[in-house]
């Protein structure tokens, strides 16, 4: 929902469609704002329980990306009768368990007949308005930290084509169903200046949204990736969304040092990806300590923000 203008003149609306972010922020009382977001999609794995867990972690992620705490959620279901409601039960069970893990109450929902199954949640969170972390706000010299490895789109594509091996699927399900809560707590504790979560537009697409009059430099060898995804990309497994990301964003990227398949990972559309955090260079160590202390072991410093005009240089 980018490039949509709102006509809202409500002064309590702190983040809306005028400058869209991961979620909307509405001040309900002094020192208290409500955070709202919604996300749903078609299955990314075969196991309905895992799909429910992933869809919930993904929907909650936009609240975490704002530095906020999710509190309630509503289920959104599109379901074909032919598939049976037992399968839907497993989806809802997975989502419910992830919400419970997050301390989020599922308080309702809505379902419609749909020839293609779809599932997701609308999530409401709370935050102190002065502590909201937006996409933009990073400065040249800031470090960039990514908290989950890339490759989820490629692996989901391999699942659909029936060529993903079980251990790779298991690893990907673990990554996609992991909450971004710990990453969010760590970035708030360390005083991050900007953040977003890496989802459908891939690392490059979401990083571009953080570049408001600045540029970025990424070191590919520091970017966490699932190795099997690179192997699958070399075999030509690539989802349509990742190809479209590349067509849309390649012109902002200078990456002549990289092989084509390596670059494909940086454009790969993620589901329930990690947080991409910008933090003052001086406090990067403190953020990495906070992340490790909370068990976010895949997190890595992947590059820096630089003076520039909205381009990304990727070196080996
Ligand atoms: Co987001
Ligand atoms: Co979203």
Describe the fold and architecture.
By secondary structure, the chain is of the alpha+beta class. It folds into two domains: 13-131, PurM-like, N-terminal domain (60s Ribosomal Protein L30, Chain: A), CATH 3.30.1330; 143-315, Phosphoribosyl-aminoimidazole Synthetase, Chain A, domain 2 (Alpha-Beta Complex), CATH 3.90.650.10. The chain is 35% helix and 26% strand. It is built from ten helices and 13 strands. The protein has helices at 48-65, 85-101, 152-160, 166-177, 181-190, 202-210, 227-234, 240-249, 260-267, 284-293; strands at 13-15, 24-29, 32-41, 69-79, 105-113, 118-127, 143-146, 194-197, 214-219, 253-254, 275-279, 300-307, 312-315. The two termini are 33 Å apart. The structure holds cobalt (II) ion (2 copies). Residues 39, 62, 199 line the site of one cobalt (II) ion. Residues 22, 62, 65, 196-197, 199 line the site of one cobalt (II) ion (CO).
């Amino acid at each position: 929902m980018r490039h949509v203008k709102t006509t809202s003149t409500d002064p309590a609306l702190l983040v809306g469609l005028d400058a869209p972010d991961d979620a909307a922020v509405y001040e309900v009382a002094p020192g208290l704002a409500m955070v709202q977001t919604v996300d749903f999609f078609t299955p990314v794995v075969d196991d309905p329980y895992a799909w429910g867990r992933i869809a919930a972690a993904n929907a909650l992620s936009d609240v975490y990306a704002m530095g906020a705490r999710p509190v309630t959620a509503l289920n959104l279901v599109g379901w074909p009768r032919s598939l049976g409601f037992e399968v839907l039960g497993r989806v809802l069970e997975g989502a419910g368990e992830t919400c419970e893990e997050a301390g989020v109450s599922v308080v309702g929902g809505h379902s419609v007949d749909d020839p293609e199954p779809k599932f997701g949640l609308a999530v409401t969170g709370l935050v102190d308005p002065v502590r909201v972390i937006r996409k933009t706000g990073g400065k040249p010299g800031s470090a960039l930290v990514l908290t989950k490895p890339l490759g989820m789109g490629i692996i989901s594509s391999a699942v659909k084509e029936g060529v993903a091996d079980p251990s790779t699927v298991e690893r990907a399900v673990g990554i996609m169903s992991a909450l971004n809560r710990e990453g969010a707590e760590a970035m708030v504790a360390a005083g991050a200046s900007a953040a977003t979560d890496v989802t459908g537009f891939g690392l490059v697409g979401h990083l571009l949204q953080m570049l408001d009059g600045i540029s970025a430099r990424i070191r590919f060898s520091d970017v966490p990736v699932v190795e099997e995804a690179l192997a699958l990309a070399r075999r030509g497994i690539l989802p349509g969304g990742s190809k479209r990301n590349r067509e849309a964003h390649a012109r902002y990227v200078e990456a002549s040092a990289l092989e084509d398949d390596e670059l494909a990972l940086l454009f790969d559309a993620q589901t329930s990806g990690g947080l991409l955090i910008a933090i003052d260079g001086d406090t990067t160590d403190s953020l990495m300590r906070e992340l490790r202390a909370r068990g976010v072991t895949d997190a890595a410093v992947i590059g820096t923000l630089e003076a520039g005009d909205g381009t990304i240089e990727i070196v080996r």
